[in-house]
Amino acid sequence: MSIGAFSISLSVKDIKVSKAFYEKLGFKDLYGDIDQNWLIMKNGDCAIVLFQEMFDKNILTFNPGWNNNAEKIESFKDVRVLQEELREKGIQFQSEVDLSSKGPGSFLIEDPDGNQILVDQHV
């Protein structure tokens, strides 16, 4: 089962300070809006997303419909289909995508240790 392009979403205190830090590690801006307090940065195949004042803790994030450069891909499994396949496997949801909706949507689950996993479709 492919659930999309992977990144780690970091809950940061000051997005500008965090951006400067990760730039020193070789990360470059890829997508996002620092004025809206979110920014995707990339270093090689590694992607991080900086979020200020949006989430309480760090989140593992998967983006169906995107490749590792935040570009739309033609063929992918819709987030609603993924949600129902996981439900059939007994996964519990913290938040769910509306099954009657189309296009962008997301759901949130937690692993056995409480790590949050966001499946966030943008297309």
Descriptive tags:
123 residues; alpha/beta; 2,3-Dihydroxybiphenyl 1,2-Dioxygenase, domain 1; seven-stranded mixed sheet; 7 strands; 16% helix; 36% strand
Strand and helix layout:
Elements: E1 5-12, H1 15-24, E2 28-33, E3 38-43, E4 46-52, E5 59-63, H2 79-88, E6 105-110, E7 116-121
Overview of this structure, please?
With 123 residues, this protein is an alpha/beta fold. It has one domain: 2,3-Dihydroxybiphenyl 1,2-Dioxygenase, domain 1, CATH 3.10.180.10. It is 16% helix and 36% strand. The chain is built from 2 helices and 7 strands, in the order βαββββαββ. Strands 2-3-4-1-5-7-6 form a 7-stranded mixed β-sheet, with helices on one face. Strand 2 and strand 3 form a beta hairpin. The longest helix has 10 residues, at 15-24. The two termini are 19 Å apart.
